[in-house]
Amino acid sequence: MTELKVEVDPAEAGFDAERLGRIDRHFKRYVDDGLLPGWLLMVARRGQVVHVATCGNRDVDAGLPIESDTLFRIYSMTKPITSVAAMMLYEQGAFELKDPVYRYIPSFRDMRVYKQGSALKPVTEPATEPVRIWHLLTHTSGLTYGFHYAHPVDAMYRARGFEWVSPPGADLAACCDLWAGIPLLFQPGSEWNYGVSTDVLGRVVEVASGQSLDQFLAERIFEPLGMTDTGFWVDEADADRLGPLYTPSPVDRKAVRLDALGDAAYRRPACLSGGGGLVSTAADYHRFMQMLLGRGELDGVRLLGTRTVDYMTRNHLPGGVDLEAFGRPLFAETTFAGMGFGLGFSVVDDAAKNKVLSTEGEYAWGGAASTAFWVDPVEEVTVLFMTQLLPSSTHPIRPQLKQLVYQALID
Fold first, then answer.
1. How far apart (Å, rounded) are the C-alpha atoms in residues 60 and 187?
2. What is the C-alpha to C-alpha distance for residues 344 and 385, in angstroms, rounded to an integer?
3. Bond before 391 cis per omega within 30 degrees
4. pLDDT of the chain along its 411 residues, tens only?
């Protein structure tokens, strides 16, 4: 386990130590008010840690504090890892971005698209083009999530057992076949919608590599990068390092345990979710972020070519538009105005339009339990925030974190 400690004086890295303290004081109020159980924050520049802070508990009832080796359910922060895995295979010539998904998952041939009607009696039409691999990487596939509650197709997902979890006993291959049997929300490539695209991408990784997703990630990403605490479930020996999952109480918004969902992390899942299945530590995810900041390389280990990382972290939305223009107005792990989308990451395209202090070109994503990260290749800054409150739309943690981190940068 990598120890989390400050590696460089903030002033040497262009940060004001007193201003960094504002971040801790601001987010301490969330814990003091009972809105978050606890949190861990890391800020680094040019690969060196400038600021580390923890506050509150991983388990409120047991009084167990958040510590440097605390495990967190990172949910959708799994997506960038799966996207990196796919692009490693792309670099080997395993597929092309324009390849139809049905070459790897036959059930995705002859997809239907929702046109009108209810979840019980939908009217559909044939897809005018196949779902392609780049559609999965950019969330322009027409796939969705059951938890959106925004469209009849979302209800069809829930009816088949997909809301926050997968149907009991269904592995990733079976889940992909079930999703393929549900109409797409729109014609592939015509809009952006947050959904199970990266889970399907995880199945493409399995088929193209001949390995299960957990094996591929362990052998090709986690072991080379020294990410010793990241996986799809937590063994009994490490169970006490993972606190409960929390959710806001409908009465006073204070964090209360959500064991019905949180307990899933203690056992091997039937479906290895490349879109939301991983558990990790701050130290491990920090390693992953530094590899990205290093344009594919960390400590002499290269996972991706420099141009591949640059390509992944530019806006791939057609016409260079932002999510506001191209996305459906519903929940995602990012704001929409001024924000583009690359191959597995949101990308700041217009900081002024986004209305949050930030840098154009920075890329990011977050998880359903309010975890978040971003990489700023211009300022060479990486930021990681870990907590366990679902859903992530409960509090404006991400924009507040950005404004507080950037106000502390003074060089």
1. 46
2. 19
3. yes
4. 567 999 999 999 999 999 999 999 999 999 999 999 999 999 999 999 999 999 999 999 999 999 999 999 999 999 999 999 999 999 999 999 999 999 999 999 999 999 999 999 999 999 999 999 999 999 999 999 999 999 999 999 999 999 999 999 999 999 999 999 999 999 999 999 999 999 999 999 999 999 999 999 999 999 999 999 999 999 999 999 999 999 999 999 999 999 999 999 999 999 999 999 999 999 999 999 999 999 999 999 999 999 999 999 999 999 999 999 999 888 889 999 999 999 999 999 999 999 999 999 999 999 999 999 999 999 999 999 999 999 998 999 999 999 999 999 999
Which of left, alpha, beta for 346 (phi over 0: left; psi -120 to 50: alpha)?
beta
* Structure token pair of residue 152: 């009849």
Q: Pick the closest to residue 212 from 199, 203, 221 (CA basis).
A: 203
Of 346, 206, 341, 333, residue with least CA distance to 274: 206
Cα–Cα distance measured from residue 195 to residue 201, given in angstroms and rounded to the nearest whole number: 12
Report the topology of domain 10-72+212-314+367-407: Beta-lactamase (3.40.710)
Sign, CA torsion 144/397/269/62: negative
pTM tops 0.85: yes
Find, among 186, 76, 192, 181, the residue nearest to 136 by Cα. Answer: 192
Residue 76 and residue 365: Cα distance in Å, rounded? 8
Domain extent listing, the chain: 10-72+212-314+367-407
